[in-house]
Specification:
Blueprint: E1 10-15, H1 27-33, E2 34-36, E3 46-56, E4 62-67, E5 71-74, E6 77-80, H2 81-89, E7 94-102, E8 109-116, H3 124-132, E9 143-146, H4 183-196, H5 214-228, H6 235-239, H7 243-256, H8 260-274
Parallel strand pairs: 8-9
Antiparallel strand pairs: 1-3, 2-3, 3-4, 5-6, 7-8
Length: 291
């Protein structure tokens, strides 16, 4: 066992004169929880493994982060739910916060539940931006739910099982919803909806603000490649994370895949359409120049 640096989460152990010697008639559990205290000068001293997670603050106080059973693994990273809750509670408009996993496997996502302070309102994009300044991307909740009060159990603690399911609605984003304007955007919207499990997605919505991550990005790209018969690289989704931007990338790649003859035929078609434009209309013809 090694102490962790200040500010880093770790397992909390308790030592000193008040620590018991073990559990009565439970030697296996005693061996698991009561360990030799390597930092004590008292022979035979023990320290107790509390099962809690905590971290030392710079001022020497210990910040409780939750139980070890609140630790989950998401996309290959071990995540402390209590650490996210502590960071979320630092937002000036948040009185209380709980983070709960939803789903399983590659569909596992974090949902942040907040109780705003009296008279305050909190928007999902503001909470996400705030956490993004303190936590890595894999620890950011995919959705946020604002509640007037948290459901409590008989002991007065939050009953996580009774927290409402956020459902499949579009998250509360800063930008307004915009519907698809062409067939490519409509097909991309359908693909994104299938992968993210959302019924409504605007073409200006950011894939990662909707709860997307590296694994779901791979699923989207795989379906886009099949739908458009194009070898679209994964980086496109990271460089152009909205449906409108990705639609442009698809069109660009479709044009790049055309032969010179196909490109010339397409340009002639545009030229023929332009000849029928009414007086004063914007030109629709395209010019084609050799490199």
């Amino acid at each position: 066992l090694q102490p962790v640096p200040v500010g880093v989460a770790g397992d909390l152990y308790a030592g000193g004169l008040a620590i018991a010697r073990g559990y009565e008639k439970r030697p296996a559990l005693t061996a698991e929880r009561f360990l030799p205290d390597a930092w004590s000068t008292t022979p035979g001293a023990r320290m107790y493994r509390t099962g809690d997670r905590a971290r030392m603050r710079p001022d020497g106080t210990i910040e409780y982060l939750g139980r070890n059973d609140d630790q989950i693994k998401i996309r290959g990273f071990r995540v402390e739910l209590g650490e996210i809750e502590a960071a979320l509670s630092e937002h000036p408009d948040v009185a209380e916060a709980v983070v709960q996993p939803r789903g399983s496997g590659s569909d596992l996502q974090l949902v942040g539940y907040v109780r705003p302070r009296a008279g305050a309102t909190v928007a999902a994009n503001a909470l996400r931006a705030f956490l993004g300044r303190h936590l890595p991307g894999h620890m950011l909740p995919a959705q946020f739910v604002s509640l007037e009060a948290f459901p409590l159990g008989a002991t007065g603690k939050v009953d996580r099982r009774r927290l409402p399911d956020p459902g499949i609605t579009r998250p509360d984003l800063q930008r307004a919803f915009r519907a698809p304007e062409n067939e490519i955007e409509a097909l991309l919207q359908e693909i994104w909806g299938q992968v993210l499990g959302l019924a409504v997605i605007g073409v200006e919505d950011d894939f990662f603000e909707l709860g997307g991550h590296s694994l779901t990005a791979m699923q989207v790209i795989t379906r886009v490649r099949t739908a458009f018969d194009l070898d679209v690289p994964v980086r496109v989704l990271f460089e152009r994370p909205t449906i409108a931007q990705m639609a442009v990338a698809v069109v660009e790649q479709q044009l790049d895949a055309l032969s010179d003859e196909e490109a010339d035929a397409l340009l002639r078609e545009f030229d023929s359409l332009g000849q029928n434009d009414p007086p004063g209309a914007a030109p629709t013809s395209l010019s084609h120049s050799e490199p």
